[in-house]
Amino acid sequence: MAAQNYTLRFKNRSGSQHDFLCYQQGIDVNTPYIYTLAWFAKPVANGVDVDFTWSIDYSFVWSEQGTLKPGITFKAQQVIPADLTTANLTTFTDNAGAFQFGTPTAGGTAGSLTIDCDGTIPKGAATVGIGMSGQGTHAVAAEPNFAAVFSVHPEYWISFGSFVPGQVVDTQTMVNSEQVDFPVNVYGMTATLDSGNNWTLAQGLV
Question: Residue 37, Cβ neighbours under 10 Å: how many?
């Protein structure tokens, strides 16, 4: 059965062009710092509507970027499918400078996604993370002999500013952020940004 699609319609009625941003929260991991990535970002002119459509298809991602910080863009160099039951664990190895994921298995904890970095991983040389619908959402520093366990309870948040997909987002300093809940059996939501830079949310694609 194909995964259910969800659509978020952004309506820019602010009077100015803005970059529409959608990112996720509600992800916990067993390491002190997790990087939140811009999941979807697109410049939208005033008076224009744009749709962002996704399905809840998880993935493992990594990048040969040892240091991330707000403003830096995470560029995934490998994206492989994952799920919370039958493909929730993968290994991450370095073969003479060639980083690679192993084939996912069901060896992790149900409801979580685990990346097991083995002893070949140099400290500070790469970042690993998870994504949804083919695009990274969160990343952490890869460490030797460390299994990063992502507990997944995704929340969808919107904001605006100047972003590109994959850019590290500092959620602590975001302004005018709004959580978008999808009620049961509702797969479309509309978010309108008004001239006061306030959000109005409505069920359906209106």
Answer: 28
CB 54 within 8 A of CB 132: yes
For the stretch 41-86, pLDDT in tens is 999 999 999 999 999 999 999 999 878 888 899 999 999 999 999 9
* The pLDDT of residue 17 is above 90: yes
3-state secondary structure of 144: coil
Beta carbons within 10 angstroms of residue 200's beta carbon = 12
- Give the DSSP per-residue string, 43-68: EE-TT-EEEEEEE--EEEEEES-S--
Distances (CA, A) of 90 to 13, 26, 102, 164: 44, 22, 6, 28
Read off the pTM: 0.93
Amino acid at the residue 32: P
Contact 178, 201 (CB under 8 A): yes
Q: How far apart are CA 33 and CA 127, in angstroms?
A: 12
Q: Where are the beta strands (DSSP E) in 64-197?
A: 78-82, 89-95, 98-101, 112-117, 127-132, 135-141, 146-161, 168-169, 178-180, 188-193
- Would you state the structure tokens that stand for residue 84, as one six-digit string? 């919370």
Q: Each residue of 95-110: pLDDT tens digit? A: 988 999 999 999 999 8
Give alpha helix (H) positions in the chain: none
Say how many residues make up the chain: 206
With residue 114 as reference, give the H or E element that holds it. Answer: strand 112-117
3-state secondary structure 168-183: EECCCCCCCCEEECCC
